[in-house]
Amino acid sequence: MNNYIKSCTADYIRLTIAVDDANQQKLIKRNIQELACKMADKTGIKPSQILHPRAGYQFYMRLPLYSDFVFNGRNEETPHIVVKCSHPTPDRKFISL
């Protein structure tokens, strides 16, 4: 008997990762900044609308999964991935997806 999930609906899934190595943290930050710059070049949106501080994190970015995404809108019904990186408080993880 197959007991595999045939379909699933998820409104919110959170993955948090603790990165303690300073060199790895720098690499992750640099990669996030490069991704934001590439998205800005491709979409014509200002980089500050794509990557900015929020909720105590140094970097906050939304990665759209569909082309009808509006960076200055709420996009509650448009699927996207939120990346939060570099929070100074030790009880928060370094990166959250």
Task: Please tell me about this protein's structure.
The protein has 97 residues and is of the alpha+beta class. The chain has one domain. It is built from 2 helices and 5 strands. The chain has a 5-stranded antiparallel sheet with strand order 1-5-4-3-2. The protein starts with 15 loop residues before the first strand and ends with a strand.
SSE arrangement:
Layout lengths: L15 E2 L4 H22 L3 H4 E4 L2 E8 L15 E6 L9 E2 L1
Antiparallel strand pairs: 1-5, 2-3, 3-4, 4-5
Kindly summarize this structure in a few lines:
The chain has 97 residues and is α+β, with helices and mostly antiparallel strands.
Label this structure with key terms.
2 helices, single chain, 97 residues, 5 strands, alpha+beta, 23% strand, 5-stranded antiparallel beta sheet
Mean pLDDT: 86
Number of helices: 2
How far do the termini sit from each other? 34 Å
Q: Report the oligomer.
A: single chain
Residue fraction in strands: 15-25%
Fraction of helical residues: 25-40%
Largest sheet: 5 strands, antiparallel
Give the number of domains.
1
* Secondary structural class: alpha+beta
Q: Which spans have pLDDT < 50 for at least 5 consecutive residues?
A: none
Total strands: the figure is 5
